# Entry
Amino acid sequence: MLTGYERIGEQRYRESVGFHYEEFTVGDVIEHRPGRTVTETDNVLMSMLAMNLSPLHIDAAYCETLPWGKPLVSSLVTLSIVGGMTVRSTSGRALANLGWDHIRLPAPVFAGDTLYAQSEILAKRLSRSRPGEGIVSCRTTGTKSTGEVVLVYERSFLVPCRTGAAGAAAGYPAVPDAPPAPPSPAGSAPRESA
# Structure
């Protein structure tokens, strides 16, 4: 069973980010939470950072004359937020991001919209040039809290294989074990079971 934690000792757990190659299963769907409400500041800062000076994103008076009546959030903001949401539970262990394909923006995003995302694992294969690593591909869909789809893309990334039978059987090098847990503070009493 997948969890967000690895047991590293007696009553000690470490938060886990992402998965090893063997832990991905084609067809699995991961819902990414929490959602994120987009702000006007997000839009203006990213537009300036990316040098996207289109009045469509930064000039409210101009946008009042257009069909939307208000600034559209830059697609770079939408892609960055939705893409960022996925990292913890897809490519958190990634060694490299390999590519983005088929990016589509079927509906606009405005300041105040709350975005959510989910990713479906589409394919995986062992790397032919990098033993002990595999390539995983997924399709991510970003939606507003209303369910309206605002972004769809496919992405591939390189992840390490896990230690253990699968990696050893394939001749892959082991991933180093976690460092030992620090000792309990001097004089602390052991915890009793309830």
Summary: The mean pLDDT is 86. The first strand starts at residue 5 and ends at 9. Residues 86 and 173 are 27 Å apart (CA to CA).
